Amino acid sequence: MNLDVIMALRNIWRNPRRSVLTVLAIAFACLLLVFMLSFQFGSYETLINSSVTIHTGHLQVQNTGYGDNPDIRKVISRPETVVATLRNMQPVQAVSPRCQAFALVSSRDRTLGTMVVGIDPTLEAEVSSLEDLIREGAYLTRPGPDRQLAGALAGRLLARNLQVVPGDEITLLGQGRDGSVAATVLEVRGIYASGLEEFDRQTLHIPLRTFQEVFFMDNAVHSVVVLADELNSVHGIKAALEENFAEQSNLVVLSWDEIQPGLKQAITLDLISGGIFYIILVLVVAFSILNTFLMTILERTREFGIMMAMGVKPGRLIRLVLLESVSMTLIGVFLGIGAGCLVTLYFQAQGIYLGGAHELLEQFGISGRIHPRLSLLSVSLGPGLVFGITFVSALYPALKVRKLSPVQAMTAV
Questions:
Q1: Radius of gyration of the chain (CA)
Q2: In angstroms, rounded to a whole number, what is the distance separating the alpha carbons of residues 114 and 108?
Q3: DSSP H helical segments within 52-87, as ranges?
Q4: Domain-located, residue 153
């Protein structure tokens, strides 16, 4: 082993109490950063998955321009081809076609404008949590020839505004794809509550086949919703779909962050606010490191003066002091990463119970437990920041050695 490294390691433990406290401060900061970053990433994934499974899905295939201008005539004319392509892709968990159009919905006493969404009841249950959000009545079934009225699912706020309950009849009036009048009578089968006020106030779900008949859609749909097996697969699926649909200029693939930019902005804002806290934490640790090495330089001034008088160059002394700081920091960083990974893996398996919010979240299809997600980013980002800032903070006391005069240093008390 290099002589300078041996000397640096020995010098670290000349004052064991101070060295242990410094190492523990670094280790605690790294542990906290690994766990908190993993917790944040895990909560973001839970939030995203819960949000997309309520309505949007991880991805959607649409007609070009439909997202900016949802015209009923901008359709996917052959959805079966798109669905077949998606089902052959390994990361895709479920697929469901949808139609939607704006229409007037009337109960006995009230009329409201609402967004009518046509869904395949069986396939929709695989891509969304709509079936689990039913609070009154029952979920939709495929319309059969023995039923006079098709069923409908109304949001909690929409049902309250229309003053309807399961079993009541409502009238739907809109414009078909061909410009003709689209009208029918529906029976409210169920009322759902997603926790998203705008969604619960403005959305009515009906069977896809009923929608296509009433709005004269033939077999066309407006979007094909995709649920990925995990969040990390979304961009890979999107890239593969864009390659498959390269020759079809009328189709576009949108990921969840393009469909819900507000959700992405909220996550970014939370990440920035968390980052400010983490930087403050690291700065506190950096000042403790700065104080430790300033004390070290002051205590060893006479020693440095003697070494310089014996012919040791200031550059070597600087290197020795930096080796001491790097060694101490690395010991703390690795201890913190190890402890942080153990704590995070435990809670990743067990989850963190949210107490009083548990029952409230479960009403909206969100688990009452948050599972931190350990990743290379959460393990490396925080400790890397700690190492970088502590190294920079150790430069100042190390560079002070260069200004020492051997004679003055040897006479220092």
A1: 31
A2: 16
A3: 79-87
A4: yes
Q: What are the tens digits of pLDDT across the range 108-154?
A: 889 999 999 999 999 999 998 888 889 999 998 766 555 567 889 99
| Total domains, the chain | 2
Q: Which two tokens stand for residue 171?
A: 């009238």
CA dist 404 and 402 (Å) reads 6
Half-sphere exposure of 338 toward its Cβ, with a 13 Å CA cutoff?
7
Contacts of 349 (CB under 8 A, 6+ apart): 371
Q: Which amino acid is at 313?
A: K
Taking the C-alpha atoms of 144, 146, 147 and 153 in order, what is their torsion angle to the nearest 10 degrees?
-30
Cβ(109)–Cβ(163) below 8 Å? yes
The one-character DSSP state at 58 is: S
pLDDT at 322: 79
Are 367 and 289 contained in the same domain?
A: yes
Q: Domain limits at 12? A: 3-51+264-410
Last residue of a domain, one of 248, 282, 316: 248
Strand-pairing partners, residue 370, are 352
In residues, how long is the chain?
Answer: 413
Q: Which residues pair with 150 in a beta bridge?
A: 186
The token pair at 262 is 């507000």
Residue 408 tokens read as 């003055």
Specify whether 92 is located in the same domain as 202: yes
How many other β-carbons are positioned within 10 Å of the β-carbon of residue 51?
17
Buried-state track 5-31, b at ≥16 Cβ within 10 A, e below 16: eeebeebbeeeeeebeebbebbbbbbb
Same domain (yes/no): 199, 326: no
d(CA 293, CA 320): 12
Half-sphere exposure (CA, 13 Å, Cβ side) for 345? 7
Q: How many CB atoms lie within 10 A of CB 169?
A: 14
58 lies in some domain: no
User: What pTM did the predictor assign?
Assistant: 0.74
Angle at 335 between CA 333 and CA 339, to 5 degrees: 115
The DSSP secondary structure of 154-217, one letter per residue, reads: EEHHHHHHHT--TT-EEEEEEE-TTSSEEEEEEEEEEEE--S-HHHHHHEEEEEHHHHHHHTT-
Cβ atoms of 58 and 364 within 8 Å: the answer is: no
CA-nearest of 394, 281, 298 to 336 is 281
| pLDDT reading at 367 higher than 60 | no
Are 139 and 217 in a shared domain?
yes
CB 170, CB 105: distance < 8 Å = yes
